[in-house]
Amino acid sequence: MPKRGEILVENIIFIVLNVLFLTILIIFLINQGNGVSTLEDAYSKEVALLIDSARPGMIMTVNMQSAMSVADKNNIPFDKVVSIKGQYVTVTLDANQSKSYQFFNDINVSGHYPERDSSGKFDGFYILAFSKKT
Amino acid sequence: MISKINKKGDKLISVYWFAILVIVAVGVVLMVNAFYGNPYDVRQIESETLADHVANCIYYGGQVNPSLLSADGVFRPDFRDNFMHMCFLNFSVEGEFTPVPYYIEVNFSSGINDFKNVFGISEGNINLRPDCYISAGNMQNLAKCTQKEFFMKSSSGKVYAVKILSVVSKVTENTNG
Questions:
Q1: Residue A20 burial by CB count (10 A; 0-12/13-18/19+): exposed, middle or buried?
Q2: Band of the pLDDT at B92, cuts 50, 70, 90?
Q3: A25 touches chain B (CB under 8 A)
Q4: Do B92 and A101 touch (CB under 8 A)?
Q5: Which long-range contacts does B74-77 make (Cβ < 8 Å, 24+ apart)?
Q6: A32/B50 CB distance under 8 A
Q7: Does the predicted TM-score (pTM) go above 0.80?
Q8: What ipTM describes this predicted complex?
Q9: Contact, A35 vs A67, CB < 8 A?
């Protein structure tokens, strides 16, 4: 009888360690994919390419929900995440860093602001409106 | 005796099992770092977008840009002089010594079979042009190029072959190099 108990404890430890290993691995993978610099890099390039392909009169909506959750975690207001200055798009998801990417289209980005749902909260989408440069 | 051997065997399997887990973990970490450590390389898409942008500026919906050809079908040099403004392009960079990461070249040839260059436009950083003709080992550190060719028909019925070459460098933003 005592031997059976010993085997059970060993098995439990083995299973717990395996589960722990898998959990750490999954958390590591998720954190890597949602890293600040990865998201800043991806979104700054995405917005810059959208601006490059835009024509006056267009309105585009960009899904930035994963950026919103990271920005919330780092206490960055979502309406300050995307900024456009000159020919550069800058995405900021952390107070200590940001990523900029240049675009070539000489178009006026007349508006870039986060979309709000019916309750007035940000829903994770950004709106880009374009007009002709005067 | 048999149970003792089994116990030793179980422990041995456990040690090997965790050794395998460690190897797998190291492999996953290395692969993930290799994947996420490299920034997204969007230069090819960007150079294609630039070429499309210029193509649309020159010939859109079967109509030649009215600023490109005069009424008697002659290419207007003022279109070349104001190309950036006419085609809504802006390559201005931040910083005094930052090189322009773009280059665009448009060549117009007369006729369908006789490719005689009749007009040309080029803007941006011409130093990027040779990158399009180099076949080196590490192509990542070279600029990305897109070449587009199409025919355009003027209102007078004359046909021109248009060749567009667009180049985007931005090596530091798109690679680890």
A1: exposed
A2: very high
A3: yes
A4: no
A5: B75/B108, B75/B118, B75/B119
A6: no
A7: yes
A8: 0.82
A9: no
